[in-house]
Amino acid sequence: MRLKSLAVLILGILAVAVIAVTVSARSFAGSSNIPDWLQAHVGDGDGEISQVVLERARALYQKKVAQGAVHNGCYFAMDATRPGDLGNGVLGRRYYVICEAKQSFRAISSGHGGGRNLKGVVDFSNGKRCAKNFGNALDSSLTTGGAYMTSEAKTSFKGFYRVGAKQDQALMRTFIQFDGEGETANARQRVIGGHAARLLRGMCLRKNPNSSYADHDGFVPYGKLVDYAGGRSNGCTSWSPADAEQIISMVKGNPTTLYIYPESRDIAAVGKSGAYWNASCLKEIGKPKFWPRKNLEPIIAQYKKDNPPPPPQPLPICTGP
Length: 321
What we know:
By secondary structure, the chain is an alpha+beta fold. The chain is built from seven helices and 16 strands. The chain is globular. β2 and β3 form a beta hairpin. It has a domain of 191 residues. The chain is 26% helix and 30% strand. The strands form five sheets. An eight-stranded mixed sheet has the order 5-4-1-15-9-10-11-14. The protein has a two-stranded antiparallel sheet with strand order 2-3. A two-stranded antiparallel ribbon has the order 6-7. This is YkuD domain-containing protein.
């Protein structure tokens, strides 16, 4: 009788253990609790979001909502390991706008940090298609992965450009400042944020004393409008003008979170089991590198000291119509 009772007891203990392990495994597997409609967008193809990127972006958003820091119904994520250019004028969609209450998921294009080539010293530049170099040093023009929150919006006048015969348009560009934490904590110091991928090149001055933007001599700046949505940035997140307009309207006065992948720990883990990196870009770049600010900032500072920029020159006067 005692043996039978003991056997029953042992079987009961084993059953409880099996149930506990099963529940634990299920809890681990479904710890992110990603809803089915959103899980359908998870994948490593263009327009899809990789599992680890989504899980970290949701965790950051949910943490900030719980803290009362975010009341926005949407949040953002970016996968900087993916290609920015797919060829034939097609841009890779690697920036994600997720609004769970509306069951809305949208993938759009975004630029990555171009980095720099300090001639004769060190080259940490990135190509247009894939980013190999990442980092958080001042003046590095590199993307830094990690946690951000959107902050204030600043709109500034960049100059005029021609849109037709004697027709001019002012380029007003809005910049959304990002605030970071951890490795991204110096985002404000680096002036890292998001804006439309538009600028003016070949600047010159044209006489227009009636313009509200005229200087004390009655001149206003003019340039050629350039859309670099398919190019690189100075470390900021840049979007096409249409996408930028939508994103800025979503966060102006209503901050939310942005999670950018990869962090330095992910870069260090490349090649190890379970580590994620976009396969096509990894094949192209070989092995990515993270440049910590403590190592790179002194090199940049010394380079600037050894190679001072020429004194600023006044803009030339425009010629032609």
